[in-house]
Design brief:
19 strands, 6-stranded mixed beta sheet, Immunoglobulin-like, 11 helices, single chain, alpha/beta, about 30% strand, Rossmann fold, about 35% helix, about 425 residues
Length: about 425
Amino acid sequence: MTTRLLLLALFGLVPVMLVPGWTTALVVAGVIVIAGLVDFFLVPAPRLVGLQRTPGLMVRLGDPTHCTLSLVNLSDRRLRLKVRDAWAPSAGAAKTRSAFVLAGEEDAQVRTELLPTRRGALHADRVTIRSRSILGLISRQKSFDVPAIVRVLPPFVSRRELPSKMAKLRELDGRSAVMIRGMGTEFDSLRDYVDGDDVRSIDWRASARAQDLVVKTWRPERDRRVVIVVDSSRLAARRCGDGTVFDAALESALLLTALAAGAGDRVDVIVADARVRALASSHRSKDPVHDLSVALTPVHPELYDADWEQIAATVLSTSRQHALVVLVTALDEGSVSDEILPVLPALMARHRVVLASVEDPRLSKLAAERDDADAIFTAAAAESELLTSKSLQTRLRGAGVQSVEAGPEDLPGTLADLYIGLKATGKL
């Protein structure tokens, strides 16, 4: 029933008030009921509308997208429609309701603007069609399943740091004026000596032939292997900053993948908890970052403990040659002591292992507060957590594992700088 039927009923009270009596009331009620029934049979059925959704291109979290809903009048009758293009709240649909008058076999389109607030595959909800006749007393309504999926990739906010990191790599690779020498780097070319060059780089035989000082230049090794392991267990589901620990780990994996692939190295990414959730490789990929983003889109942390024995076996089967293995996980005392440390000898026998973790920025703030008794107890707990992290880093360093810890916004850049440092010193 529509507002018009309600207004008709209110208008029917006028004759009842002017000529009171049951006869007048029954006549007015009969007229309203007959008008409603006639209008009901005049209303076209909503099934006479053909529907199709066309989602826009996949986007990164924070970027706008859209979905187009196409409507076609499958009959020769005029249709007066109200349409609701429903989406989940996380899709951020701005306007979902619209009205149309479609002539016979006419079509129309509804463009719904979306601003997703969650990463992953966002499924569209039902499309609801409400049809009415020219009288508009009664409407017929039905909801239809019209499948559509909008894929929202990880945001990759850290890509703003990529140009500066790539510039450092170009310096190492000898494509700019800065030339460095690192142990284990590959010989590139000879050039004239200039003030400030390391005397250990002088090629005395070439200098004797040229009758002038000539130095060797090196470039970092290319076609190295980098294996990134992202922990998606319950420890990665913790809130940290504006997102979760897993979000910061994904940002770190994306930036390191872009950097290493740009340097000519092969990158493999493993996302795992109790099982392997996703695998991605830059080998024979034209756009490794995009392919990795697509692979990581449907993955979210699960409330399971990580199976580090299985993860170590997966790493060893992924790369049989020497590689840089980056474990992006939490510095949890139980996890590191009981699960990670026992599998390190097998990994370190073949690879160089680095452990990266996300530091909770709230701990430093809580540890600095001393306003009252409750704040002091909270500060003591925060200090204990910080000391535990430092102790675990010391244990890892004693086992020969280099570790880095930084806030969720700083970890991608910190891990990228560590990779550049290893590249510069030829330790890959």
